[in-house]
Structures are given as C-alpha cells and as structure tokens.
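Lab meeting, item 3. Inverse folding demo.
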C-alpha cells in the first residue's frame, strides 16, 4: 500500500472523475431531469468526505490494513457510483 498522500490523491481523482462524468451526462442529456444525476454527485461528495475522514483517523493501530480497507471501500463505492451513472439513461 502506498502512503497517506497517495491514497488521498486516489480518492480525489476517482471521485472527481465520477463527478465530471455526471456533468458530461447532464450536458449531453439536457432534456432529462437532473435530480437523479445531482443525487449521484451528492453521494460522491459524501463518499469523499467519509473516506478522507477515515484516512485522517490517527487512532489506527495497523495503518497498512486500514489504508488497504479504505482503498477497497473506494473501489466498491466508485463502482457503485459508476453503475448509477450508467443507469441514468
């Protein structure tokens, strides 16, 4: 596992790309209601906040396992958000 800085960058890039993909979807589907896509953006922001808070937790004994678990959670939640984008229409 990489260090804390790299994990924070990964979280930022992955969730930033997901939000950007939602904006692209909104731009190309202007006739559709944006409420569902805005909900995906809100969920991505909440996920970002939760993951960064976990990364910054200083009361962790085994940092390597903790960061690996955060990375796995990022992958799972990222895939779920991408699936929601794909199901927007």
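The presenter then showed the designed sequence:
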């Amino acid at each position: 596992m990489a260090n804390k800085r790299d994990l924070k960058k990964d979280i930022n890039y992955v969730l930033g790309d997901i939000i950007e993909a939602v904006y692209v979807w909104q731009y190309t589907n202007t006739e559709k209601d944006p409420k569902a896509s805005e909900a995906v953006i809100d969920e991505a922001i909440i996920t970002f906040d939760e993951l960064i808070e976990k990364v910054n937790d200083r009361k962790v004994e085994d940092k390597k396992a903790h960061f690996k678990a955060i990375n796995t959670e990022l992958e799972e939640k990222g895939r779920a958000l991408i699936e929601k984008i794909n199901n927007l229409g």
